[in-house]
Amino acid sequence: MDLVRLLADQRCASCGVRGAIVCRLCRGSLPWLAGPLCPRCGEPEREAVIRCPVCRRLGTAVGTVRSAIALSDVGNKLMRSWKDGARAPVAELAAACVVAAVPRPTGDLIVPIPGARSRVAWRGIDGPCDLARMLACRWHLPVRTDLLERVHERPQRGLTAAQRQHNAAGAFAARGVVEGRVVLVDDVMTTGATLRAGVRQLRQAGAGRVDVVTFARVVTRL
Ligand SMILES: [Zn+2]
Ligand SMILES: [Zn+2]
């Protein structure tokens, strides 16, 4: 795994020390999500389970969810670097982490959650799209960025789980007919409301199954 990619003017996306996308110290403290995981939603569990409360929140349309790391201190800093657009290689790091931690899904195509238009226009950063392209390349799957469109973007930040669910419900629309099994990619899963909304649109447009892969996720139960 090529996590330590030395570049001439590279700094650690977490602590800022010169040398690598993420320095050896920060890499060592990346909170990898390792078993036992809920087999459906990938939530870390104290013991083996079949389903869990996160599954209930995700509803029935979502297939499986898998993420590489928990959104802890280092994970948060990486996400901030990524969203700020100051460190594009964070997307490469995220893809390397996902490939290392998540088995290749058995999908037919990869679809990213559409990034917030304001962020894409302002900073030119579309984290989920960048990650989806890199994963498509590594997993040898086609990527389609035109199947799911963001139709409104009221921010999710600061909302309760119920408010997020309501807010996200009408955020996306599928374009055309979607065929086959889709791997839906996002940078982070918080409550799952955004992912649930995206999955429902893809399923309604014809997708036979939609599994979700994210770089990071909020883990609240451990
Ligand atoms: Zn560091
Ligand atoms: Zn679960």
Plain-language structure description:
This protein has 222 residues and is α/β, with parallel strands linked by helices. It has a domain at 35-68 and 103-217: Rossmann fold (3-Layer(aba) Sandwich). It is built from 8 helices and 6 strands; from the N terminus they run H-H-E-H-H-E-H-H-E-H-E-E-H-E. It has helices spanning 24-28, 53-58, 73-84, 89-101, 117-123, 127-139, 161-169, 193-204; strands at 65-70, 109-112, 148-150, 172-174, 181-189, 209-217. Strands 1-6-5-2 form a 4-stranded parallel β-sheet, sandwiched between helices. Strand 5, helix 8 (193-204) and strand 6 (209-217) form a beta-alpha-beta unit. The two termini are 28 Å apart. Mean pLDDT is 85; it is low at 1-8. Bound molecules: zinc ion (2 copies). Residues 38, 40-41, 43, 51-52, 54-55 line the site of one zinc ion.
**For the largest beta sheet, what order do the strands appear in spatially?**
1-6-5-2
Small-molecule binders here are: zinc ion
Give the strand tally: 6
CATH architecture of the domain at 35-68 and 103-217: 3-Layer(aba) Sandwich
Count the helices. How many?
8
Tell me the fraction of residues in β-strands, as a range.
Answer: 15-25%
| Low-confidence region ranges | 1-8
Strand count, sense and closure of the main sheet? Answer: 4 strands, parallel
Helix content: 25-40%
Q: End-to-end distance, in Å?
A: 28 Å
Which secondary-structure class do the elements indicate?
alpha/beta
CATH topology description of the domain at 35-68 and 103-217: Rossmann fold
Radius of gyration: 17 Å
Order of helices and strands: HHEHHEHHEHEEHE
- Overall body shape: globular
Mean pLDDT over the full residue set: 85
The level-1 CATH class of the domain at 35-68 and 103-217: Alpha Beta
